[in-house]
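sorry to bug you again but im stuck and you know this stuff better than me. below you get a single protein, a line of residues and a line of whole numbers that encode the local backbone shape. mainly i need to know what kind of three dimensional shape the backbone takes. anything you notice is useful, everything is just below:

***
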Amino acid sequence: MRTEFDPEAQSAPGAARPGAEGEAVAHSPSAILQEPGPISQGPHPEAQAAAGPGQEAVSAGIEPAAMTLPAAGPAPAAENPQSELEPAAPEPAPKPPRPQAPALPFRASVLTLYPEMFPGPLGHALSGRGLERGLWGLEAVQIRDFALDRHRSVDDTPAGGGPGMVMRADVLARAIDAVAPADDPRPRLLMTPRGRPLTQERVRALAAGPGVVILCGRFEGVDERIVAARALEEVCVGDVVLSGGEAAALLLLDACVRLIPGVMGKAQSGEDESFSHGLLEYAQYTRPQVLEVMEIPPVLVSGDHARINRWRGAQALAATRARRPDLLAADDENLTTGE
């Protein structure tokens, strides 16, 4: 799929704005990666020409309306008496309707002040090829399009005083409602350092679903009331503070998209890696056999796959114990509680 920009939106009035955080920024049109539209269910032109009365409706999957029969009376004389002895030629069967294009299995909508940041790195490599092949869809929506004042303001000073600006709940509510109405099954995520840490388990659950709606915060954050009013799930990608939620959204989407069937070459690539089994991944090696004075561990070139698997398991456990003991503690706690 390709990113499309609306040229009319680029020339919209009021587009020029200062670009510093805390101030209104330049109006950027929403970059939308459009999903393939449904394929017409209409009958094939050849079928329309060959089919008899009522056959056109049948080819479209609709029962033909009842036909009005003429009043009973003497049958007209046949022009060719011999034709009565000849069997009638069978009518050609109508061609079946063309199959409808399936809906995208994973569709992401990103609400942001900087839609030009998308797809960004997601338009390259595995995720980019998956996007072009229609394995997933992405739209980036400009939040300022839902402001009502002539300055297209999306933020205001924090209640109670303090530095910075806070994104307004009313503007965000209109943006969310336009992109994800009440019957939209996709989870609504807010990228914020105040959220729950993102885990591989949560990523797998999101990747297996219909997609996500992501709100990218800026400035000092968003009005807390929008979190409750629109049931937002607060997500944190690490114990760091970013200038905005866009980079975090790209990280989350990359983690999800690579798990969509067909994006990676081998499905096993997403199963045998860090966090998949509660451990960090074992160390990897490849050619050359000797790098300076360091050799590939002999077990990996022994051809004994049972020994290799045992070695890799031990390496994964050792790396996790040394670098992420919290993962082992969480696993022990789950065993204790029976989860």
